[in-house]
Design brief:
mainly beta; globular; 113 residues; Glucose Permease (Domain IIA)
């Protein structure tokens, strides 16, 4: 899934990307920050949201396990979750989104190989 592409319903657009990966793959934080949300969320499965300050937040969805809890601090490149088995719509992979001041921005420059 690419940033800004249409979702199945046609009226909504993806606000992040799906990074194809196998179930069980480690999910690492893009930068230091504090856990603002770590729980199940409809449409995202197990979701973690990190607050990086200055209005930046990163979202990591479709996880099998979350290794941090609400309020925990994380370091850059720290393992925070494990990718889940995916859904029929998206297949297996991590849903990744960046928001600045509440608005989604293309997260591709934060993706590492």
């Amino acid at each position: 899934v690419k940033f800004g592409s249409e979702r199945n319903l046609g009226q909504l657009k993806w606000q992040g990307v799906v990074i194809g990966s196998e179930a069980g793959t480690e999910v690492r934080s893009i930068s230091h920050g504090r856990v603002a949300f770590a729980d199940w969320f409809r449409g995202f499965g197990l979701l973690m949201i990190l607050d990086h300050g200055n209005g930046y937040m990163s979202l990591y969805g479709h996880n099998d396990s979350l290794f941090k809890e609400l309020g925990d601090w994380v370091e850059a490149d720290e393992v925070i979750a494990r990718v889940g088995p995916g859904s029929g719509q998206l297949g297996t992979g991590l849903y990744f989104e960046i928001r600045h001041n509440g608005k989604p921005i293309n997260p591709i420059r934060w993706c590492k190989k």
